[in-house]
Specification:
The protein is an alpha/beta fold and 262 residues long. 50% of the residues lie in helices and 16% in strands. It starts with a strand and ends in a 10-residue tail after the last helix.
């Protein structure tokens, strides 16, 4: 049986590609499990410095595979509860990843596919691609962390508008409202995503990026006093790491830093 996820390594960057093009990369249980496994392996691999997530064929990801769900034994509650629980392991892994994660949106991102793209740190979308929640207008609700990430990206008012209208959002509109980072030509999203991560790594060492990413996520639940203490501990810790010391030394010597991301 063909794997539902393909992975390749390009210049220390893992490209994780959904591989169910005949169903627009819709998520069944196998894909959800393989996605989590590949993300976990990439997170723990010291030779990998960044992750790109994309789709095969015409779509990025169509969300949950409702045809697959309808064929499972038992009621919908049991099936949704099981597959969404597995899918959410992947979302948590992306959020906790101490490396840059970029969604290369090569086509339609709907339902859980939309939410997964939102969970990534950055989103590069091709000019023809669209985003849509899809589930509300089918009498369902949002999964994949969509209710967590969407209001944090576009605000509560815009989130309610997106839910209530549940219409396709074009690449240009997505850029205008801050849903995506860049719009590129058709076929260029993966290439640009790799370049984007290379640009980050060249300027910001992984330990700094990972710590700052974690601090930002924690800031939404911490009172100011606790957040300030966490920032205090983090900068003291970072200053003692090899790349932290190199950053300070390069400033004192008035030169560009050379990070090893060790």
């Amino acid at each position: 049986m063909a794997r539902t996820i393909k992975k390749e390594i390009l210049d220390r960057i893992a490209i994780i590609r959904f591989n169910r093009p005949s169903v627009y990369n819709a998520i069944d249980m196998e894909l959800a499990k393989e996605l989590f496994d590949e993300l976990l392996q990439s997170s723990n691999d010291k030779e990998i410095w960044g992750i790109v997530i994309t789709g095969s064929g015409e779509a990025f990801c169509a969300g949950g595979d409702l045809k697959w769900i309808s064929r499972q034994e038992g009621n919908y509650y049991k099936t949704f509860y099981a597959i969404v629980g597995q899918f959410h392991r992947a979302i948590i892994e992306i959020k906790n990843m101490k490396k840059p994660v970029v969604a290369a949106i090569n086509g339609m991102a709907a339902g859980g596919g939309f939410s997964l793209a939102l969970a990534c740190d950055f989103r590069i979308i091709e000019s023809h691609a669209q985003l849509i929640l899809a589930y509300p207008s089918r009498g369902l609700t949002i999964d994949g962390g969509g209710t967590y990430f969407l209001p944090r990206i576009v605000g509560i008012a815009k989130t309610f508008e997106i839910i209530a209208l549940d219409r396709p959002i074009s690449a240009q509109e997505a850029l205008n409202i801050g849903l995506v980072t860049e719009v590129v030509q058709k076929g260029d999203s993966v290439k640009r995503a790799v370049e984007f991560i290379k640009g980050i790594i060249k300027k910001v060492p992984l330990h700094s990026y990972g710590i700052c990413k974690n601090l930002v996520h924690e800031s939404f639940r911490n009172p100011l006093e606790l957040q300030l203490e966490k920032e205090r501990e983090a900068i003291a810790y970072a200053s003692q790491q090899p790349d932290g010391k190199e950053g300070i030394l390069s400033f004192l010597e008035k030169r560009l830093p050379i990070y090893k991301n060790s």
